[in-house]
Every structure is written in structure tokens, then in C-alpha cells.
Amino acid sequence: MRLATLAPAKVNLVLRVGPRRADGYHELLTLLAPLDLGDRVDVAVSPRSGPVTCRVPGHPGLCGEANLAARAAIAFRERFGIRSAIAIHIEKRTPITAGLGGGSSDAAAVLRCLARAFAARDRRALSEIALSVGSDVPFFLGPGPAWAAGRGERLAPADVPPLELVLLFPEDPALAIRAGEAYAWLDEARQRDGSARPLGRRAPFSPSRAGNDLERPCLVHRPALAPLLGLLRGAGARVAMLSGSGPTVFGVFSGRGAARRAALTILEDEASSLRLRVFTARTVRRQPRVTPWRSPRSASSPSTRRSSRRT
């Protein structure tokens, strides 16, 4: 059996960070929204026993059992007593270590494929597997936009209207930020100035409510990111902010046309000199479905295109 799905990227429209807990994690309240940008994940399940393999063409450092997607498959097999060989193939489209949840989404995509392949309907078990792999993974198993609390495992559905975004990912390795670094910088800043704030409460999203507690300390340690926020605001963004722990920044625009014009302007004027990857994306209300795998050749055939237009 071979299944495929999209592993969507995400943005944190709101990210409030509480104090560090005894287990080393921080208490969070965050509003997460999946995007129509993401990786393509294929999962092949053999009727014979064998290992879990993971291939990410073009990214040799992501291949193998250390990948979160492979770790999710291994944890799934252990939880459900399965020995079948599992082969994972990931076509990376979401930037790596970008604050967009790409690795966590790949892991959740694998779990969704395996749940379908083995008719695993134990939602609690799947959620526990997801959380054991990473804090963001349970969100990507859910139906769509959500408020997440705790480490990110306490989820509540959220109503987020379709938002048109422009995302800027700086490719300079010197600007990379590990999540652990971002939270440590926030803790250091709060120890110096006592700037901790209440987590707040869940509320309907509006651009005026957007915010990210990690943004300020990350800009202090990566000041080259601040001009990128200025680029988005200068191009007409209603809101411009850091995504998660960065270094990707994104802007919310009034419509698709405005987002595309802004992206084109930044591409033409700044992307080359600043080594930026520029994306337009839209928030979506539902996570992608798992479907039987089809080869790219069959998916692009005339008969397939006619069929997809009818549906």
C-alpha cells in the first residue's frame, strides 16, 4: 500500500510564552494556522516485515531514522505492534529550520498515512505518539486552525478566516535560529527586565491580536531580521511578525492580489541581495486528506486534469 498527503507549513498568528516549567518546557498559548504551502509526503507500507526508511532527495542530512517523520513511524509501529517495512519519501518545499513547522508536519503526515493504512482509530494513542515526537506534531494531526496550550498538546479548534500571506525566509545560515535558543533568549531578557506578561486568553482572531513573545529577543540576537519586517510593512502588510522561533517572517495582506504584488516587488528589489526565499501562501481551514499515491506522470495526464476540474 502506498499513500500520499501534503504536510502543510504553519504560522503562529499568536504566540504567548509563559514561564519555564519543571520539565524544562514553557507554558504556551498559541494560535496555529496551517498553510497551503507544504511538503509532499509519500508512505509505502510493505506486507513483509522490515525497517523504517526515510528519503529526502536533495537533503542528505534529513535522511534516515533521525528524521522526525521516521521517528513517528517507528513510534507508531512500537505502539501498535506492527513489523511491516515502511518507506517514507519526502519532497521538501517548506524551508528547513524556518519556524514553519516543516519537520513536525512531516511527522504528522506519516502518522495520518499509517493510521489510514492500518485502520488505527485510537485518537488518544495517536496524539500520545505525536507528542512523544515533538510539541507541534499534535496540532498537525488535528482538523485545522487551533489554539494550543501547555506544550502545545491541549488543542481547541479556532476560527481563522483565510489570510493572504507573504513569507520571507533568509537563507543565510548565520541567521538560523533553533527553537531552544529563542526560548533561552526570552528567559534571559525576562530575568533582566522582568518583562513577563500573562498568557492571556483565547479569542477570535483579528490582526490587532497578532503577536509573538519570541520576536523581540530574536531580533536582539538576529538584528538583520528587523529590516525584513520593514520590507513587509513597506509593501503594505497589515501585520508583519516573526513566525514561531523564526527566522522566517511573514506579513498579512488585504487580499491575494496585494500579497502577490508585494512578493513580486520584494523579489525584484531585495531578494537577491538579501538571499531571501519569498513565498505567497494562504491559511487553510482543514488539514489535507490522505490519498492513494499516484505517480507524477499519471497525475499530470490529460484525463486526470479533466477529472480534477470536474471535482
How would you characterize the overall build of this protein?
α1 (68-80) packs parallel to α2, α1 packs antiparallel against α3 (123-133) and α5 (179-193) crosses α6 (215-221). The protein has ten helices and twelve strands. The protein has two domains: 2-160, Ribosomal Protein S5, domain 2 (2-Layer Sandwich); 164-282, 2-Layer Sandwich (Alpha-Beta Plaits), CATH 3.30.70.890. It is of the alpha+beta class. Residues 298-311 have low confidence and may be disordered. It has helices at residues 68-80, 102-117, 123-133, 137-141, 179-193, 215-221, 226-234, 256-274, 296-299, 302-310; strands spanning 2-20, 26-49, 52-55, 84-91, 146-150, 154-157, 164-170, 211-212, 239-242, 249-253, 276-282, 291-292. The longest helix is centred in the last third of the chain and has 19 residues, at 256-274. A hairpin with a 6-residue loop joins β9 (239-242) and β10 (249-253). The two termini are 25 Å apart. The protein is globular, with a radius of gyration of 20 Å. The strands form two sheets. Strands 1, 2, 3, 4, 5, 6, 8 and 12 form an eight-stranded mixed sheet that branches. Strands 9-10-7-11 form a four-stranded antiparallel sheet, covered by helices on one side.
In short:
The chain is an alpha+beta fold. It contains 10 helices and 12 strands.
Features of the shown structure:
single chain, 311 residues, alpha+beta, Ribosomal Protein S5, domain 2, Alpha-Beta Plaits, 8-stranded mixed β-sheet, 4-stranded antiparallel β-sheet, 35% helix, 29% strand, globular, disordered C terminus
